[in-house]
Write a structure and sequence with these properties.
Helices cover 33% and strands 41% of the residues. It has 102 residues and is α+β, with helices and mostly antiparallel strands. It has a single domain, classed as Alpha-Beta Plaits (2-Layer Sandwich). It has a four-stranded antiparallel sheet. The chain is elongated and about 45 Å long.
């Protein structure tokens, strides 16, 4: 079994917690961490610079499609950032993720 973290950007902490709570409630993720960030990007022909919050959620690889679909369905951005990164962790932590996402 493989494990992933999913990197998701949000307009604020409230939105990040709302999405994480939704995913936790469906047992699609085991954990979420939140970090304030500043983002610079091109949007509709202009360069933007904004404060956002990134969430890093932890789950098993087999949940990727469901996590991606759920986030896209409820995320308020027109084009949300939902990126997966394959990871390995210590055995006890991987077992915990497995147990929490059943």
């Amino acid at each position: 079994m493989g494990f992933i973290i999913v990197y998701i950007t949000h307009k604020n902490l409230e939105e990040a917690k709302k999405i994480a709570g939704h995913l936790l409630g469906k047992r699609l993720i085991a954990c979420a961490n939140f970090f304030p960030i500043e983002s610079a990007y091109r949007w509709k022909g202009k360069i933007e610079s904004v404060h956002e919050v990134v969430s890093i959620v932890k789950t098993k690889s087999e949940n990727w499609e469901k996590v991606k679909e759920e986030v896209a369905r409820i995320h308020p951005y027109d084009v949300p950032c939902i990126m997966k990164i394959g990871v390995e962790a210590n055995d006890k932590y991987e077992k915990w993720i497995e147990d929490e996402t059943k």
